[in-house]
Design a protein that fits this description.
By secondary structure, the chain is mainly alpha-helical. The chain has four helices and no strands.
């Protein structure tokens, strides 16, 4: 498994752990973990863009990633933590998982 793919999978796992805390209504703990997770998401997205640049056959919808993150930030600004968790889980993380299936 490539380092890029491994990094993306680890980020997906972090997202799911953070999301689970929000679903359990552990807001303080979830927000603390979210801070670290956002850093990992940033690195993962940068990694995906670099991977796409280096691999012509890699299909990725950049707008889908950007839109998911924008929606997530909007929900966070509104303190709608469940909506934010849903977006992270069902839009962002699931799409990232599909992208890893294309990676070497």
């Amino acid at each position: 498994m490539s380092q890029e793919k491994e990094l993306i999978i680890e980020t997906i796992d972090d997202i799911r752990g953070t999301v689970e805390l929000f679903y359990q209504q552990k807001q303080k703990q979830a927000l603390g973990r979210l801070e670290a997770t956002i850093g990992k998401i940033t690195i993962a997205v940068d990694t995906l863009f670099a991977y796409k640049e280096a691999n012509d056959g890699f299909e990725m919808d950049e707008e889908k990633l950007r839109d998911s993150l924008k929606e997530c930030m909007g929900a966070l600004e509104e303190s709608d933590f469940i909506l934010m968790a849903d977006i992270l889980q069902y839009d962002f993380a699931e799409y990232m998982e599909k992208l890893t299936e294309q990676m070497n």
